[in-house]
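Internal ticket #5521
Category: modeling
Description: The requester needs a full-assembly model to guide mutagenesis choices. All entity lines are attached below as received. Residue total reported by intake: 932.
Assigned to: D.W.
Attached entities:
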Amino acid sequence: MHAGSPRVVLDDDALRRTVVRVAHEIVEKNADLTDVCLVGIYTRGVLLADRLRAAIAAASGTMVDVGALDIAFYRDDVTARAADGRQPVVHSTRLDFPIDGRTVVLVDDVLYTGRTIRAAIDALLDYGRPGRIQLAVLVDRGHRELPIRADYVGKNLPTSPQDRVFVTLAGHDAADAITVVGRA
Amino acid sequence: MVIRGARVIDPASGVDAVLDVEVRDGVIAALGSGLVATAAAEEIDATGLTVLPAFVDPHVHLRTPGQEYKEDLESGTRAGAAGGYCQLLAMPNTVPTIDSRTVLESLFERGERDCVIPTGFLGAISVGLAGAQLTDMYELASCGVAGFTDDGRPVERAGLLRRAFQYARPIALPIALHEEDLTLSRGGHMHEGAVSAELGIGGYPGIAESAMVARDLAIARYEDARVHLQHLSTRGSLEEVARARAAAVRVSCEATPHHLLLTDQAVRSLHGDAKMNPPLASEDDRQALIAAVRDGVVDCIATDHAPHAFEEKDAPFEQAPNGVTGLETAFAAIYGGLVLPGILPLATVLRAMSLAPARAFGLVEPTIAVGRPANLALWDLADRHVVRADRFQSRSANSAFIGREVVGRCHLTIAAGRVAWRLAPVGDPR
Amino acid sequence: MDDLRRHLIAIGDLDREGIERILETAASFESVQEREVKKVPTLRGRTVVNVFFESSTRTSSSFELAAKRLSADVMSLKASGSSVDKGESLKDTIQTLSAYGPDVVVIRHAAIGAALKTTGYTNAHVVNAGDGKHQHPTQCLLDLYTIREALGRLDGVQVAIVGDVLHSRVARSNIQGLLAVGAQVLLVGPPTLIPRGIEATGVRVSHEIGDIATADVVYVLRMQSERMAEGANYVPSLREYTERWGVTSSRVSPRQIVMHPGPMNRGVEIGADLADSNQSLILRQVQAGLVTRMAVLYDLVTRPYRDTAERPAVEVAA
């Protein structure tokens, strides 16, 4: 494959099946589902959390709590981003339920360096004291910079650091897909 | 010296032609083409340049004595020479005030040594400019003051001004007035109008000037006094002057380059260099001022050159002192901003900057004619440049025109027959 | 975008989009204020210096808490009273404090243009917390935030600003900010306290208190008697002012909301019962001040900017 050409690694059908599989894994791993809540990380983690919730309901009959977490205020690259001309968009965190003592499943689209998850854990701990935190991601593309590992992985995707991975989800984007664009 | 091949323009003597000008023994010895210079005389190739009568500024602050860190006689007069001036009149609001023979005599002595061009002084109307006690006006006149003024401050009390007019009538020197009703201008730091309303800076209403002009012209008329109104800035004041002229009041008056070219919009920068007294007024006032110069209601253009140290002007707007420098930018700013665009005729500007102020104060009239003392300047009227703070001869750089494009650069000034300014290399084709 | 400036000196430094972005960010800080841990680590390791040359408990405490809630190190300096009203001291003070390398300098000063001057003395982002009668942009932002929260919109909202507009930086910032977001502004007060020429900004002016009836928001200004030079005669007496222009319960309808930048003179420009009524948003304004100032600090530090010289550098043309 030559540099710059996009490669679809998961189409909409495969993506849907992947979400259902991850939902089953969450159900299997957590005996008491009423103890579980899903917290999506803005932007696409929030959409994924909603889909997982529906899939968990279909698999178990339980509607778990779902929330949205904005980590803009917890980033460790606030000024690095200012210099490159991008400013993180700020969203409102929405956690309408207590998280103390419960199992919180953080949901995000791509796991890469681990810094986003570090920020999300910090943010979460400022909202309360969960009994345990688990992590569900659609794609793990490797290249971790922190000792963080996902409990549920939709797809392990070997990439080079120069590759860019795009997750598009209907509801926010045109259609469901995971695409990799390689670089020279 | 022979200045060869310049265009010579002097509306006063009716000259406008490419001529050679020979200056010998301080006098214009010959005007013509193909003049033969004596072997020893310097020749200047002035092809493409313009000879104009040198200017007379009836209103400058040379800050001497007492505030030489802002300006001294040497730097101030050198700034004047660089701007094409041959004579200046300095205001008496110095430290101490020029209100006694002692101060005046020591100034003349220093002037003899330091001044690059002939410089006269106005004496104070009231002792210490305090507006209470008249100065010894006869003594000051006998020492050689060119007139009287309390400039920087108005003569607040009508009764005192009337006494000054009455008492000084036999002296026959003009009394020059800074027109401001302090009860109306109090708390004001800029022209009162839409811009002051928006910025929140205390407004100085135009009537603070025009109401005082009306009062003082009434007194001058009653006493048949010779009065000179300084730095007029508003339409209302100009209407009062026109009315008084029609009633044969002997009044002359000034407009400054900054009031002719800038408005209160310049204050939006909140920079101290946009602050002076009277303040930059509205566009309507500016248009009225331009028309008044065109129609001769305003006869003189004066700079009100008022140097201040950088640190003083660097203060927040309301705390910055009033005043801007002007000698080195006056003609180029007006030429570029008003003459070239066809708003004011060159002849009108030359007259207002040279002949009219000389007449108003009885000074030597800088006419370009054979046999006259040489008071002329050589200009490059094609030199378009941006005013820079680091290019002034003045000790201070608080010009309102910094960053503005002006047209005209003075290459040579001859004042009272002597070379006072030379921009090297002179005559170098550009 | 035109609002990519390093500093917040006047509300006009922000365009409509910039104002709305800050209000959005402020809203997201609301949820933080409801948590047990009311702090986020955003500005951890950064330094915010508050320099107040003019006393102000409200604004300085609001900025201080805002910076602390963002985990910044905060140094608050009250420099009022002494010899600080000269320009030179402002320069010395700012240059001295800037030697510590602060990221943001928040400045309150009695002189118009002091905040703008400050930008020339420091490499930090400068936030104007009030400069004389000129501007108070964070007050404007918190007021916009409060109005938007109460009415659900800003566009087309009618705001009557009542009282001493002449001496009020709050009024000047609010006029600009309100007009920028599409609100309509009516100024009401005695002719001596409405600056001549202010209509040119696009506001309407009335001298009749009854004209506030059509407003959605009645914004009452403090009667700043301390700003009036002795004998200036802006109003002959506070008693007459209150009688003619005081905002009381009988002069507003229950559907109107009432705001005041504080501190209030109860019984002078605003009726005591009205100030404490539930149509008064005065305490809500204080809370909005905290999240809005958090948003301003966050926005300045994280926003990509391009340097806009306040006075263009001068270069020779030829």
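Resolution: model delivered.
Comment from assignee: Residues 227 and 251 of chain B are 5 Å apart (CA to CA).
Ticket closed.
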